[in-house]
Amino acid sequence: MTILQQSLVLKGKTSLAHQFVEGEFLEGYDPTVENTYSKTVTLGKDEFHLHLVDTAGQDEYRVLPYSLIIGVHGYVLVYSVTSLHREVQAIQGKKLAESWGATFVESSARENQLTQDIFIKVIQEIARVENSYGQDRRCYLM
Fold it and tell me: How far apart are CA 62 and CA 79, in angstroms?
């Protein structure tokens, strides 16, 4: 069994991280300045220790400090689709992901739709890119 440590930084959307780690949706919460979560995920024979950093979503915090960027191996770009008048249409998200060579997934933390899948895809992509299966390495995701 290989044990890898990975950190993931989320830009906003505390509910997604909380649903993934705690298995429940937060109905109401104070906006995040910064919060961290940890979870161990087993994929096949490999065990991944994830460290999630939920960064502030407010405009005054929009530039990530250098300390949150060092050693990060993955990012999840999160936006809300709860408004009747969506700011970002699915096709726009797909096009952006395609231009970045990234995977696009729309999910619902409230309904727990694809919440696990998002993080599993990130782990798999990091492992693929870094060829880290079978190696004892630290990975950080943002």
Answer: 14
| Ordered domains of the chain (ranges, CATH) | 2-141 (3.40.50.300)
Strands 140-141 and 72-76: parallel
Of the candidates 6, 1, 12, 3, the one whose C-alpha atom is nearest the C-alpha of residue 123 is 6
Give the torsion through C-alpha atoms of 1, 73, 121, 107, to 10 deg.
140
CA–CA gap between residue 115 and residue 20 (Å, rounded): 6
Q: Give the tens place of pLDDT for each residue, 30-54.
A: 665 677 888 998 888 888 888 887 7
Q: How far apart are CA 72 and CA 74, in angstroms?
A: 6
For residue 54, give the nearest of 22, 81, 87, 96 by alpha carbon. 22
